[in-house]
Design brief:
- The chain is mostly beta strands.
- The protein has two domains: 84 residues, no CATH class; 138 residues, no CATH class.
- It has one helix and 21 strands.
- The chain has a seven-stranded mixed β-sheet with strand order 8-10-12-14-16-18-19, with helices on one face.
Length: 242
């Protein structure tokens, strides 16, 4: 099963040393207890290892148990570590994961047209808007809202939700407990309620080409990062959007 895994800066996870290209086996697998763990949703790796302080990789997880937690984390007895992914790779994989699960020809909760609105209210629901100025909203627990067009808005209000806006000038908002708001596009901004996390990117124009120069995450603590306030990343610092 193709999955994604986060590590600390030394490519360790909970004290166990990993190495790209290597395979590891265990005798037992129990979620959050034993075995090897990884996430189906690349964005969920940020819950365990924050951008800027971690490394990430695509992995192959085998002998996977049927256990499921609040997010997409799974557990197996065997894991093969693929090549390390940079932040751009994780972001692209995350957006790809979401849109792979969308059938725009059949699912009425998705929208690929400009100015379209997509909404998912059930638990583990996915709302995806791919056109410019689109809005995606997921209100159920463990829901995912993704807006990939320019000026798009993604909002997740259920617990353990993910809101991801990848287009330019996109906004992402998360209000449920243990949720993440992720704005990866140029001039993107994110906000969340107290206790949740925001992730934003900084871009610069270099030689007539826009380049992502930083990605940073923070927990909304009400002091350094205010609740329900949109933030951008400027000179690698969180700045309130005016």
């Amino acid at each position: 099963m193709k999955m994604y895994k986060g590590f600390d800066k030394n490519f360790q996870c909970r004290g166990f040393q990993y190495e790209p290209g290597k395979t590891y086996k265990g005798n037992e697998a129990k979620l959050c207890s034993s075995g090897f763990h990884a996430c189906e949703n690349p964005f969920d790796t940020f819950r365990y290892y924050s951008p800027g302080k971690a490394k990430y990789a695509e992995v192959e997880l085998e002998d996977v148990t049927d256990e499921r937690g609040d997010d997409s984390k799974r557990c197996g007895k065997k894991i093969t570590i693929g090549a390390e992914l940079n932040m751009k790779g994780v972001i692209e994989a995350g957006i790809g994961f979401i849109f792979e699960k969308v059938d725009f020809t059949k699912d009425k909760e998705q929208n690929k047209n400009d100015n379209g609105t997509a909404a998912a209210s059930r638990n583990r629901g996915i709302a995806a808007a791919s056109g410019d100025n689109g809005t995606a909203a997921a209100s159920g627990d463990r829901g995912i809202a993704a807006a990939s067009g320019n000026n798009g808005t993604a909002a997740a209000s259920g617990d353990n939700g993910t809101a991801a806006a990848s287009g330019n000038n996109g906004t992402a908002a998360a209000s449920g407990d243990n949720s993440i708001a992720f704005a990866s596009g140029i001039d993107g901004s994110a906000k969340a309620t107290l206790g949740n996390f925001i992730v934003v990117s900084e871009w610069k124009e270099i030689d007539d080409k826009w380049v992502r120069v930083a990605v940073k995450s923070a927990k909304v603590d009400g002091v350094k990062i205010k609740a329900d306030t949109f933030y951008k990343l400027i000179k690698n610092k969180f700045v309130e959007e005016i």
